[in-house]
Amino acid sequence: MHSERKSTLSPEAQAVGRRIKGLRDFLALLDENGQLAVWEEEVLPEPDIRNVSVAAGRDAMHGPAVLLNNIRGYPGKQVVVGVHGSFTNLALLMGQPKGTSVKELFYEMVNRWGCDEPLIERVDPNAAPVRRNRVEDDINLYELLPLYRINEYDGGFYIDKANMVSRDPSDPENFGKQNVGIYRIQVHGPDMFSLDAVPSHDMGQHIRIAEREQAELNIAVMIGNHPALAMFAGTPVDYDESEYAYASQMMGAPLELTTSGNGLDILANSELVIEAQMVNNERILEGPFGEFPGTYSGVRRLNVFRVTAVSYRDDPIFESLHIGSKSWCEHDTLLGINTCAPIYNQLKQSFPEIVAVNALYQHGLTAVIAVKNRFAGFAKSVALRALGTPHGLMYLKNLIMVDADIDPFDLNQVIWSLSNRTRADDIIVLPNMPLSDADPSAEIGGKGHRLIIDATSYMPPDPISVNNNLVESPAGAEIEDLQRRLDELRRK
Question: Which of 108, 241, 286, 291 is catalytic?
Answer without folding.
Answer: 291
